[in-house]
Amino acid sequence: MQAQQLLEPIGVAAAIDELTVLTSGFSNTNYKVTFADNAHKPLVIRLIEHADKERMAKEIKINDFVKDLPQPKFVYHQTEDSAIDLPYIVMEFIEGTRLDALELPLTPEQINKLGQSLGASLATIHKIKFAEAGFLNGMLIVDKPIKMTGRSLNAFANQVLVEQGRQEMLGKSLSRRLMAFIEEEGELLNSYKNLPCLCHSDFGSSNILIDTNTMAVSAVLDFEFAFAGTPYVDFGNLLRPPFGLEPGLRESLAAGYKKAGGQLPDNWYHLSLLTDLFAWLEFLSRDEVPEPVLDSVRIVVSETITNWLWLD
After folding, report:
1. Secondary structure (3-state) at 89
2. What is the CATH number of the domain that holds 120?
3. Domain end marker among 59, 92, 125
4. Domain check: are 123 and 191 in the same one?
5. C-beta pairs of 99-102 under 8 Å, 24+ apart in sequence
6. Alpha-carbon distance 283 to 260, whole Å?
């Protein structure tokens, strides 16, 4: 990669010491750039490999719009084909440990600090409101409305399991249990009456960096899947096992969210698990479903149904 040439627009002429591949997003690859001198801080070059300029424009807009969120500042972006025939973004490099790389279990004090910080970060994201739910274009305007009601969850489950024939993959017994569960409990999703909010939609794992000295969020990354929806999308994603099973996490997460101005009903955890079924069904609907992912779908669906009445 001609990294030196890509940095010319921001006036960085220092010799590159090292170029390291970081975790890749769905449609990009990230490179950490360190320099031979001490005058320049490390940077990250993100190559938009699938040339999805609309998604790239959305990320740029969110980075500029959500100022209070801990995230890397975008230093430069080239939306047209560049010297390497790909659009790209140059951003700050932020130190931190990936959320999914934290060594579990955490101490109660660590969980409290981390949960509070994660809750505050989510509240900051969710402050951005929209007139309707749906997928966003590069101007953060909903150009494809969607619904996240009990009826839409029921319809999506029927589409995936019956019309696409994925009930064989999930297992006929578990598929019948899931359909009956959604029929019985799905109407809870209709209780969300607030305006749709900005949802990160992949809030967890490698997209959250943690300062392990303070157990605070140092950066939220990759808004490539962001859309307008309900806050329970992000809560459901974050609270997937094993991290979501850490004792005390839900309480500290909710406390941090409310302290930062977010509002949550008493049954917010139920709503988060129910909303997250959209994502698990989406995994199941893909052309190729790796066996580890399929195992996760089966486990989460089964445990959600089995434990539902005993959740607090």
Report:
1. strand
2. 3.90.1200.10
3. 92
4. yes
5. 99/204, 99/205, 99/206, 99/207, 99/208, 99/209, 99/210, 99/243, 100/204, 100/205, 100/206, 100/243, 102/210, 102/212, 102/243
6. 32
Cα 125 from Cα 275, distance rounded (Å):
18
On the question of pLDDT at 312 being above 80, the answer is no
CATH number at residue 82: 3.30.200.20
pLDDT of 290 = 93
Residue 118's identity, in one-letter code, is L
DSSP strand E in 62-189: where?
Answer: 74-78, 88-92, 97-98, 134-136, 142-145
Instruction: Compute the distance between CA of residue 165 and CA of residue 169 in angstroms, rounded to an integer.
Output: 8
| φ, ψ at 195 (rounded to 5°) | -65, 145
Residues 158, 233, single domain; the answer is yes
Looking at the structure, do residues 288 and 174 belong to the same domain, yes or no?
Answer: yes
Task: Say whether both 75 and 164 belong to one domain.
Answer: no
210 and 66 belong to one structural domain: no
Q: State whether residue 147 is helix, strand or coil.
A: coil
101 and 84 in a common domain: no
Residues 114 and 259 in one domain: yes
pLDDT bracket for residue 239 (50, 70, 90) = very high
* Structural domain range at position 297: 97-310
* Residue 156 shares a structural domain with residue 304: yes
Angle at 118 between CA 238 and CA 115, to 5 degrees: 90
Domain count, the chain: 2
- Verdict on whether the full-model pTM lies above 0.85: yes
- Edge-first strand order for the sheet with 29-35 is 16-21, 29-35, 43-47, 88-92, 74-78
Three-state secondary structure call for residue 80 = coil
Beta bridge partners of residue 1, listed in sequence order: none
| Res 226 pLDDT > 70 | yes
**Strands (DSSP E) along 50-186, which ranges?**
74-78, 88-92, 97-98, 134-136, 142-145
Query: Residue 210's closest CA among 123, 68, 73, 113?
Result: 113
Summarised one tens digit per residue, pLDDT across range 29-78 is 899 999 988 778 899 999 887 657 788 889 999 999 898 999 999 999 88
